[in-house]
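Two folds, back to back.
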Amino acid sequence: MLTLKSVQSGYGRAPVLKGISLHVRPGEVVTLIGANGAGKTTALSTISGLLPARKGAIEFAGQDLTRMRPERIVTLGLALVPEGRRVFRTLSVTANLELGAFYRQDKKQVRRDLEELRARFPILKERARQAAGTLSGGEQQILAIGRALMARPKLLMLDEPSMGLAPQMVTRVYDILRDLKKSGTTILLVEQNARAALKVADRGYVLETGRIILDGAAAELQEDPEVQRAYLGKGYREVWE
């Protein structure tokens, strides 16, 4: 569904991504893990068209995204849940969800999708008229995921969904990702929380200073001594089991 081939991009003169290649198959959950500054958010921004690729190629669902505008990319079925949620704080929860479907013409189906989403995430119904900025961080993350799902994406990309959340809300967000995985949603997940990401993913890539240094099945990466040392921390085995 998604393929990056030797993609380079960055800000100013210095490249952040230094020729990364990866792929995501339909129905997979693929995670891109790494420390702060590794280039994870840059990768998603480049795929989304928010940051132009300097070199390489990006293909999505059989189409070349490399020089495509971000508003066009969205219409192809690629949705991003950005780092920090980025909800429209002064608008209601319902208005935020409706904006996720801004380009869709099937208005009756949009209403049905909205009701299904509210049934799936009751908090979005309970807080329907509440300003999004008054929600907790975890509730805003659920809203941001719901907003992206309203676009009916073929590929859902999430940038650090656990960032700044209490442990209980991290568990809730990852329960949502597991449910999406069971329903067949294709996901590209960027995370610094490698433990949570590898637990839900099928495959993973390790990004370090703009280069992919390791990739493989999530289960294999969990067992890799270097990944355990650098990204899973001391006591990993005890916490995991």
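---
second:
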Amino acid sequence: MSETLTLSAETRDRVGKGASRALRREGRVPAVIYGNKADPVGIHVNERELMKLLNTGHFMNSVVMVNGERTLPKDVAFDVVTDRPLHVDFLRISEHATVTVQVPIVFTDEEEAPGIKRGGVLNVVRHELELVVDAAEIPDQVEISLKGIEVGESIHISAVALPKGAKSAITDRDFTIATVVAPSALKSTEGDTQTEAAGEAGEAEGE
């Protein structure tokens, strides 16, 4: 399960671009807490503390206690040049609220995948799954086994054993998560062979 993170914050007295720029110069990041039938509250957090949480790799699918208030990060805006965080949105949630989160996928048992042993390449279509879960039961990751997968075979969401209580947020289709494809060298060789065979057949007809 994803651990609960903690972040201290201070209330913002002023809003607007000028006030936000001033905060960033002081090493603070403007943010807002909203939702759960309460008024939005403008806050600012320490940039170093925020970066430490962002670097955990699971910030976006963790409950974050902001000044004792239970929240879920919904969006982080970054500067396109410096990659520094510019703004964060936090959604207020109750302890057992139903939330939608992006959970990273980890592929296992690669050594037991015949298709990969034969030189196939794992083509990952989705690196995360959008899941609907209890806020107190957010998984760190979803493990998907590659055992028995051959070249040309795909893994669909219907074949994945999701963590207890979790459901896919996408329910209208059996979407593909990954496929084992033939390596480009193999495809190229097969293509050359087919071209040569076609050429030989054409020559035979000409005779």
